[in-house]
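Appendix B. Worked example

We walk through a single record from start to finish. Start with the input: the chain for oligo-1,6-glucosidase, Paenibacillus pseudetheri, length 562.
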Amino acid sequence: MDKKWWKESVVYQIYPRSFKDSNGDGIGDLQGIISKLDYLNHLGVDVVWLCPVYQSPNDDNGYDISNYQSIMNDFGTLSDWEELLAGLHSRGMKLIMDLVVNHSSDEHAWFVESRKSQDNPYRDYYIWSPGKDGQPPNDWGSFFSGSAWEYDEKSEEYYLHLFSRKQPDLNWDNPKLRKEIYDMMTWWLDKGIDGFRMDVINLISKVPGLPSVSGESNGEQPTYHFGGDYFVNGPRVHEYMQEMNREVLSKYDIMTVGEAVNVTPEEASLYVSEDRNELNMVFHFELMDVDSGPGGKWNVQPWKLADIKSIISKWQVALDGKGWNSLYMNNHDQPRMLSRFGDDKLFPKESGKMLATLLHTLQGTPYIYQGEEIGMTNVQFASIDDYKDIEIVNMYKEYLAAGHSEEKIMNSIYIKGRDNGRTPMQWNSESQAGFTTGTPWLAVNPNYQDINVENALADPDSIFYYYKKLIELRKQHEIIVYGSYTILAEENEQVYAYLRTLGEEQLLVVLNFFGEPATFDLPSTVKFQAKELLISNYEVNPEEELNTIQLRPYEARVYKLK
Ligand code: NOJ
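Next comes the structure step. The output line below is what the pipeline stores for this chain.
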């Protein structure tokens, strides 16, 4: 397997709106991030992924871009951004930028032109249709509720928006549009950035004819369906990814990670196999869907360890030697990992460290989402008015209108809502957690008095220092990066254990996933002469025999075996 810097890196994801406000307007900004670069350096991360900082009317917090080559006023200026890049590089860290090109904002100049008239030169930059019998052309639903089509009164056609109506989908079948995107990417790369995270990149190619999911409309009020069959890994997506690679990516020593909705490992390998020249890795959603019922994301059901093990194992094995995995359990679109997969009340430290151990000892590149390293948790706001996320707000209205109880809806928001991950970063126990001197755009989690960076840095046993150690171990032991993965004792209902192998060396990882004691029997097939305990989240006697291990609640151990 080829060695690459991005395989050996740990990425830290920043959601700028919620990271650190420098000017008291309640919104995080670039100078705020700059003021925290030493903190990131202290943690030891190699790469920062910056969520969108481009000009945007913020219908979807920057994922609706109105100008790809200028910075959002709330966040600062291009010269602030240059200072940030220089500040990262001078500390030996890299920067990857978010690339959001499945759609733009409806306020982007291209769309402003496009909607002027049916014969406007920019008309074909987007996906327009006359519809049928006064109805949208098909029954696709938007990811953010309702139809994926919006009628434009002035130019008398519908345009496609898989996300909000202020996020019209770009028409990748238009070579002129593709060229504009490649030029824009080159512009950023020439400024010295180190790669891209590509938003919903596997949705860019739509099936011609835009067929309905449920066949022809019968003229009644349509119900909307997930039209994934017609735009997930669409017919020309790999042609476009290879073209993008040829025209842009291949010219730079960068890393790329594509967000890929609904992909299997087999489909993902088409994007990430090293011989296909597309992307380095993808973010898949299988693990993030592990607690979704048949009704989708909001139909919450408890996750099962057996499913977590089988999903991770499948991806570890499928991509080994071919492509590369991304490793994450939360981000700005997900609830907090500690609340979802750990126990944020009884065992926050133990379970936070256990989950970190998992993410940092699998094959792939680990992504830390801001606040994860100090054990930030989900939040429960009393009223829907306290929530800002367009997905939450639209779903709330839709579900209420459909007759669901408010209590049930709020409960699903508490468990799955994206604002869980977007509350401001908790820096200290001062007012607004030290995030802002003003009023934050989204309320601070009330637990900031306990959970904050200042406390974490003052406690040698904190989750923060455990992350720091995991990051250091990755630099010291190649096996953590490159070793192959084998699951152990798959049938154990409480313990997740696996072996990593590289040449003569083995790495043994044993994780108790629950708040009760558990037993792990090491299979006799695992042979070794010497062992070294690399890390654990409890005091452990390093000489302890490994045949049968008694694990305390959420105990995690990593041994190197020779
Ligand atoms: C995925 C992004 O991560 C999410 O925040 C956004 O709402 C959608 N893509 C649409 O851009």
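Two observations about the output. Residues 60, 63, 100, 163, 199-200, 259, 332-333 surround 1-deoxynojirimycin (CB under 6 Å). The chain has a mean pLDDT of 97.
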